[in-house]
UniProtKB/TrEMBL annotation:
Pfam families noted in UniProt: Eco57I
EC main group: transferase
Catalytic function, reaction form: a 2'-deoxyadenosine in DNA + S-adenosyl-L-methionine = an N(6)-methyl-2'-deoxyadenosine in DNA + S-adenosyl-L-homocysteine + H(+)
Keywords associated with the record: DNA-binding, Methyltransferase, Restriction system, S-adenosyl-L-methionine, Transferase
Molecular function as annotated in GO: DNA binding; site-specific DNA-methyltransferase (adenine-specific) activity
UniProt source species: viral metagenome
SUPFAM superfamilies: S-adenosyl-L-methionine-dependent methyltransferases
Stored InterPro entries: DNA_methylase_N6_adenine_CS, MethylTrfase_TaqI-like_dom, N4_N6_ade-DNA_methylase, SAM-dependent_MTases_sf
UniProt protein name: site-specific DNA-methyltransferase (adenine-specific)
GO biological process annotation, one example: methylation
Its EC number(s): 2.1.1.72
Residue ranges of every copy of the Type II methyltransferase M.TaqI-like domain listed in the record: 85-210
Amino acid sequence: MSIQTVDIKTYSQNLQVNPEMKQQYGEIFTPFSLIEKMFSLFNDELFSDPNKKWLDAGAGTGFFSMFLYHKLNTGLEKKFPNAIKRHNHIIQNMIYMVEIRHENITKLQTLFGEDANIYHQDFLSDFKLPPLDYIIGNPPYNFNGIKKVPTNKLKKKTQDGRTIWIDFIKKSISLLKQNGHLLFIIPSIWMKPDREKTYHYLTQFKIHKLCCLTNTETNKYFNKEAQTPTCYFTLEKKPTDHSIALYDNQKQMYVNYAFKEGDAIPLFASSIINKLQSFVKKAGNIKVIKTNMPSKKSLFSTSPSKTHPYKNIKTCILDKLRPKLVVNYSNIRQVYSGQTKLVLAHKMYGFPYLDEEGDFGISNRDNYIVVERNIKELREIKDFLSTKTALYLFESARYRMKYLEKYAFEFIPDITQLDDFPKDINDSSIAKYFGFDELDIKNIQAYHKKPYECNQ
């Protein structure tokens, strides 16, 4: 089969993943439906320029290059009316592919022909390529083993493979001309500051458009072969202007989002978060402390005794619609015992619990605590964090599967420091105060349909 005879609309993609190749090379295949969405981030006139060079990094069996070929073949019809000359120009002068697996190289050569610029190489190795205007693709996320995710109960963390999508990004940007463009889909975890400094690396460049997919959406596109939140974006190799057009899936539109260096970038609800930013700037955000594991000297029991007299919050679970604290008892006092505090112990939704008397210590990691506030302020914050609005805002920072992240609180104003904030705190009064429009209100109410019984 030749690329000249392929009709993208009717072509049957083989998206079946070989578990061994996924394990060794991180190989999964991208459906045309997603590739089309990714390419929509580009203006169509780009495909009418015959002088640009495009690279498919980690080409696999060629799905990105196939889609690109047909975009170029359409875009260059006026400049190259002769179909054969147009084909030859695209194949010989415009599209470049790099692929590590021999089996895929054979498929690429069959599809694109012997004159195609196909490199049988490890993309991360040293080899010569011409200066590139555009690099596209879905880089492998891991190499020599799949990374452990919370839903994988059979795999040990010590069996993790090496993360290489970051290396692919850095290599790709190094290959681009100045003002060249990158179009990739990668895990969304980089959108918060991280130890590997991937956030700082990427945000030094101009990111034009960015669209996020939840772990559920990602899993659907990749036939359950990918389990992490992802994002696709266009990046230009030039200094950032600290503004990104974020796609707001709820409003079905791009929203210009301004950020400072070190600010997390929301995955969700960018339109509403934009409306909150002036209030965050004025009053600051709600400050929370994320707890760590207890001391190794701590011993725990599920029931109180003379040897385990100290009561602690371990976590929070849902009993149907009612949040229920999971309590244990320790031989020594745990952190925050004796302190008035607000505790968000549910790992997805928080569900604030007001410990007015300081009855509980905290005996587990990844609980969020608000302390050193007077009781009036804690009650106000609790009321706010018990609303559907708060649950909606928590979705903005689902960088790791469905976990509640501390970065979500960076998007939420400290309402106790805002003038004339309503005393009766509910979704309606919050929407009125912050100027949410009818669609904002509708989206907030519709997103979490279950009426959780948050108030203790």
